Amino acid sequence: MDTSTLLRTTPTASAEWWEYTYRRGAWTYLAGAKEVSRYAVVAGYIRFYVRNGVVLDAGCGEGLLHPHLDSRSVSKYVGIDFSGAALQAARRSIPALFTQTLIDVYKPEEQFDAIVFNEVLYYMPDPRYTLTRYSSFLASNGIIIVSMYHNTRDLQLSKKCEAITQYITTGDWIILDITQVTNVTADLTWSIHALKPRAGVCSAEPADH
């Protein structure tokens, strides 16, 4: 299967399944110590590249990134997710703007200094389309942060991560930095990319759209 086909192969998980698992508390472990390192890197990139800016957490779930953000670099946090159960949990503890919507139909009324896809991009039908579309939501000098979990038990997901990495390391994007984080205790590994679009990428419609 070539890279183009892999990028349009979505891991199977229905909206009902996500809603059910959030309501059952299946994702509460994401707030645990074993996940801290990846949140720290994402928050660190925002702290380094953003000054008093607006951050969009696309596929925010229960808003677990928010507590890691530095108020000196983030003036406003916006979270979007299609799971009502996840957002209900987020609103209980986080004073921020949360919107229930699908990532690929969301239309913001403002621009963002940083857009975060934290373990989300490989669930999109076409990550190229999603990245290209969201690059048009960036403010001047804005950045996109892509964090991906290396799931060695799910071959389809693993291959899609590889395809996404291959795409974002091509000429369409300026790679600001790449960090790989491993939690040795739990044998968990993530790759976190900080990037920004090259001139013209925002107007380039991805294939098949």
Please describe what this structure looks like:
- The chain has 209 residues and is an alpha/beta fold.
- The chain has one domain: Rossmann fold (3-Layer(aba) Sandwich), CATH 3.40.50.
- 29% of the residues lie in helices and 28% in strands.
- The protein has six helices and seven strands.
- It has a seven-stranded mixed β-sheet with strand order 3-2-1-4-5-7-6.
- The radius of gyration is 16 Å and the shape is globular.
- The protein starts with a helix and ends in a 12-residue tail after the last strand.
- The relative contact order is 0.17.
- The model is unreliable at 1-10 and 203-209 (pLDDT under 50).
Fold blueprint:
Layout: H1 3-7, H2 15-23, H3 36-49, E1 53-58, E2 74-81, H4 84-93, E3 97-100, E4 112-118, H5 127-135, E5 138-149, H6 155-168, E6 173-183, E7 188-197
Parallel strand pairs: 1-2, 1-4, 2-3, 4-5
Antiparallel strand pairs: 5-7, 6-7
